[in-house]
Specification:
It is a single chain. With 967 residues, the protein is mostly helical. The protein contains 34 helices and 25 strands. The longest helix has 38 residues, at 496-533. The chain is globular, with a radius of gyration of 32 Å.
């Protein structure tokens, strides 16, 4: 197996084409006589690509033919043809025993070592280290990593075989592969229906939208494309074997249009060649060119390179695109043929529809909306669900350090496709990153490599506690109840009002149970990864970016960006002695995690809190579930428990400062978005409110805003209610004003929260307290409180408001030219806001009214404007984090980052604090707003932008002395 993989990988890259030629793929499935030939006839296509191999940070090792090898599995698995190719490649590559694998891998390693020895002859040998470990250990882990990355394909191949066996046992398709049996059953009736539809079109019977097109392709080809594309959608494009009608219609219609264009192109070339041979009028060069293109297209079709075929056809084709009307209506009278699915030899045939068209309802803020779906027969669905289970392979943590990032799709995983940015289909953003010069992106690569090379491990003691709680039904430490809420019994009454109340209760219980189910699934996924990785010495999380430049681990479940459960289970794989300062930081960490206002005390106050609860800490560490359970009162209970265990070990040691600690200690920004605005605007008042200025204890911006709101309300309450209705509202609210009432509004102010958003936030807080019973009065009080809170915010953060307004005005001006807002982050990352209008179009068919929507070329002006300020600030906080990560690694620190929360070992917190403050000052000493305006003016020279907002006189150097800037 591995020799086979190595042979393929040396040619680079293995790619499973999802955009394969529809009719060819479908006919492959129909022709295959048995399972083995289906697999054999779909071998992987192999192409060269980028590097894989042994590496150290900042240095690529040039050893062996394996160094130039990875597999890049295309992750777009929407079409069934590509799925079969994936299964085939997996089955071929993985068809070997464990003994054979071990022998093959050892042979490869021997060749690597032999090659290295030859290359290094005459040079004094040094101990070889890769990723901080010996070469032998690295090789062993790397073999396991390769196997883990390909394991999902192996599982998919096995499940595919099991599926076929199951279908045969049900006598659904005796002795035939699953898909072949279905296609053979559907092909003839579908082809005949399309032919009949063609006849009706010729008679002009109300099918005007697609009548000119349905005769442009033979009915048999159209039938195969329809089956192929619809099956591909139903396998991956919906839940429970279903897909939306609009999605299926566009998908199939577009595929048929492509096929028609190719078909017409080949026919046109053939006619021209025949005409030239007949007339013999000296057009030999043109004839040769036509023949060359025709042959090239046929060769590309055989190789299933559909994109290249379409490119050639578009260059030679002047036919107007069909449009969505035609694409959609091609489907509506052809795809819903209802052929037999279940053929039982022992009984008369049970003829029933393979697909049915139904309407579903969804609740929206504006009421109930209905939409059409295509659903599979349960027998088909059973097969589809089992086949599609491994279509999307989740990234797992890596056993070896990730490949260094060197390009848009070069880095991270050894075999799985890895992209440096999550563009979610935004073409302009993807192209902007790809076009950026490599030296410009070098700091981004370096930061992501730093984050990815941080080594983690599972805290087994915490995992054991979590497993015990989960086995006993959950319900502790924010773990969801594993049992559903029982449905209320139906009342024995004819009273309609009582029945209505009962139905509402049932609906509420079902909603609660649905939410519990989702939470249980989430916990199970996280625990499954933790159990899988718990016996590993360590593992790594490759990182990539969102479009704003914020870094995220590529593994989605158990990572340090996750919940308290994830963070409690994870710890650094490398331990370091606490030292004197580390012991203090561990005590501070415990107080921060316990919360409840303790985290707002000075460092001395937090240390005192921890020292006053030493008995509780020991009890929690020794008997987490049998003792007093003090740790369960913490805001972050599992992280608190992990800290209790580490701290109790240190305090019981004769030399506490020598205790090895694996705990990541967090340093969090204080309302970090406002910190960035205060630095941008050199706003002294705002800087004091968010800890950019030194103080005896941390400033609490939420309490500060609440105090201002209270002062305003006290002044208003002293007025005459006969003149001002807000007087009574102020009197009602005076006792309700606290940091919790205003916290959400202050937090979201950096995202441009509107008055309506602030009103709704405050209304929810007031409703939770049941302070005001009358709904009308509650609404009026929320309106008044929202206005007062926004006024207080404007007073405290005047510079932030003016910068937000300036950013929004610039975005509005740019969008008048129908252009998205673009900028480059301080670290050189190009950013393009992806917001574009959706085009909506209604089409009436015999089945339903279809509403099509698709992204257009027009930008969403309002969204471009409102999203720009928060997106810009996020790009700045991402830059600060990456600058800090690079500097920490250069200083020899372990580092992990969660946006505005920076982590390192307890003994290194003081060093990290110094670095992150220096990098913040360095970031804002640059003319960020001036550079932004200059970029706008260069990209849109015909537009006039407003002048930069006035800025204050805050001295950035004060940040260097601010104890609680991050704390």
């Amino acid at each position: 197996m591995w020799r086979n993989l190595s042979k393929h990988s040396n040619l680079r890259k293995l790619k499973l084409f999802s955009e394969s030629h529809p009719s060819i793929n479908a006919f492959h499935a129909v022709k295959s006589p048995q399972i083995s030939s289906l697999i054999e006839n779909n071998r992987p296509i192999i192409k060269p690509q980028s590097e894989l191999g042994f590496f150290q940070r900042r240095q690529q090792r040039e050893v062996s033919f394996l160094r130039n090898a990875t597999f890049n599995f295309n992750h777009d698995f929407r079409h069934f043809g590509s799925t079969r190719r994936g299964y085939a490649a997996a089955a071929e590559a993985l068809a070997s025993t464990s003994e054979e694998e071990a022998d093959e891998i050892q042979e490869l390693i021997d060749e690597i070592n032999k090659h290295a020895n030859v290359k290094g002859s005459g040079v004094q040998k040094q101990p070889r280290m890769v990723g901080g470990m010996g070469l032998g250990k690295y090789n062993s882990l790397r073999r396991r990593q390769i196997k883990m990355e390909t394991e999902a394909w192996e599982d998919a191949a096995k499940e595919y075989q099991e599926l076929l066996m199951d279908m045969c046992e049900q006598k659904l398709a005796p002795n035939l592969p699953y898909i072949k049996s279905l296609f053979l059953g559907w092909f003839e009736p579908l082809r005949d229906a399309i032919a009949a539809e063609h006849d009706l079109c010729l008679e002009g019977k109300n099918r005007a939208a697609y009548a000119p097109y349905i005769d442009q392709l033979p009915a048999d080809m159209m039938a195969v494309i329809t089956m192929h594309k619809l099956m591909g959608l139903l396998m991956t494009g919906g839940c429970n074997g279903s897909a939306r009608v609009v999605q299926a219609a566009c998908h199939i219609g577009e595929a048929i249009e492509h096929e028609v264009r190719i078909h017409k192109f080949l026919e046109k070339c053939k006619r021209k060649n025949a005409l030239n041979r007949t007339c013999n009028e000296g057009n030999e060069p043109e004839a040769k060119e036509q023949e060359r293109l025709r042959k090239k297209v046929k060769i590309l079709m055989k190789k299933q390179k559909l994109h290249q075929v379409q490119k050639i056809v578009r260059q030679q084709d002047d036919v107007k695109p069909w449009g969505q009307d035609a694409q959609v209506k091609i489907l509506t009278q052809t795809a819903y043929i209802q052929p037999p699915v279940d053929q039982n030899d022992d009984a008369p045939p049970d003829i029933r529809p393979a697909f049915v068209h139904t309407l579903k309802s969804v609740e929206t803020p504006k009421g109930t909306r209905r939409y059409g779906v295509i659903e599979c027969d349960p027998l088909v669905r059973k097969g589809l669900e089992k086949t599609a289970r491994h279509m999307v392979i989740p990234y797992m943590p890596m056993l070896v350090p990730p490949l260094t990032w060197t390009g848009y799709e070069r880095g991270a995983y050894l075999f799985l496709p890895s992209y440096i940015m999550r563009t979610h289909g935004a073409k302009q953003q993807r192209e902007a990153v790809k076009r950026a010069p490599k030296p410009q992106l070098e700091p981004i690569f370096q930061a992501l490599n730093t984050l990815g090379n941080t080594k983690w491990r599972v805290n087994k003691r915490i995992l054991s506690v979590v497993d015990r709680i989960w086995a006993n039904g959950g319900r502790l430490a924010d773990l969801v109840d594993r049992d559903d809420v029982p449905l209320p019994e139906e009342p024995d009454t004819d009273d309609e009002s009582e029945m209505k109340k009962w139905r509402w209760k049932v609906k509420a219980v079902k909603k609660e149970n649905s939410e519990r189910h989702s939470q249980r699934c989430d916990i199970e996924l996280k625990l499954a990864v933790a159990r899988k990785m718990k016996d590993e010495d360590g593992f790594y999380y490759p990182h990539n970016l969102d479009f704003r430049g914020r870094a995220y681990p590529m593994h989605p479940y158990l990572n340090h960006l996750g919940s308290d459960l994830c963070r409690g289970i994870l710890e650094f794989a490398e331990g370091r002695p606490l030292g004197k300062s580390g012991l203090s930081w561990l005590k501070i960490q415990l107080a921060n995690l316990y919360g409840g206002g303790v985290d707002k005390l000075s460092y001395e106050g937090r240390i005192s809190f921890t020292e006053n609860h030493v008995d509780d800490i020991f009890d929690s560490a020794d008997r987490p579930l049998e003792g007093r359970r003090w740790w369960l009162g913490a805001e972050d209970p599992f992280q608190c428990l992990a800290t209790c265990m580490n701290l109790s070990e240190a305090l019981r040691s004769p030399h506490p400062e020598s205790t090895i600690s694996y705990m990541p200690i967090h340093q969090d920004g204080s309302c970090n978005g406002l910190q960035h605005y205060a630095a941008l605007g050199r706003d002294k008042l705002g800087a004091e409110a968010v800890n950019l200025v030194a103080g005896d204890k941390p400033a609490d911006v939420y309490s500060g805003i609440a105090s201002r709101v209270l002062d305003i309300m006290k002044r208003d309450a002293a007025g005459d209610p006969a003149i001002d209705p807000n007087v009574m509202r102020a009197r009602l609210l005076i006792d309700q004003v606290d940091r919790k009432l205003v916290k959400q509004t202050v937090m979201t102010s950096v995202y441009g929260v509107t008055y309506i958003g602030a009103r709704d936030q405050i209304k929810r807080r007031l409703k939770e307290r049941s302070a005001i019973e009358d709904d009308a009065e509650l609404f009026a009080c929320a309106c008044y409180a929202a206005k007062t809170t926004l006024t207080a915010l404007g007073e405290m953060f005047e510079a932030a408001r003016s910068i937000m307004g300036w950013l929004g005005d610039c975005a509005k001006i740019i969008s008048t030219e129908n252009q998205p807002v673009r900028w480059t982050t301080p670290l050189g990352l190009p950013v393009v806001q992806p917001y574009r209008k959706l085009g909506r179009h209604m089409i009436k068919t015999s089945l339903q009214v279809l509403t099509l929507q698709r992204e257009t070329d027009k930008v969403m002006a309002k969204r471009q404007r409102t999203a720009f300020p928060p997106n810009f600030v996020h790009s700045l906080d991402g830059s600060h984090m990456m600058m800090t990560a690079i500097a920490c690694t250069e200083a020899g620190l372990s580092f992990a980052g969660v946006h505005d929360s920076y982590w390192t070992h307890a003994c290194d917190v003081d060093k990290m604090n110094k670095i992150l403050r220096e990098k913040f000052v360095e970031l804002y000493e640059a003319p960020i707003l001036e550079n932004l305006l200059d970029g706008f003016q260069k990209s849109s020279p015909n537009l006039k932008f407003p002048p930069l907002p006035e800025r204050g006189d805050f001295d950035l150097k004060e940040v260097l002395e601010s104890t609680y800037f991050f704390n």
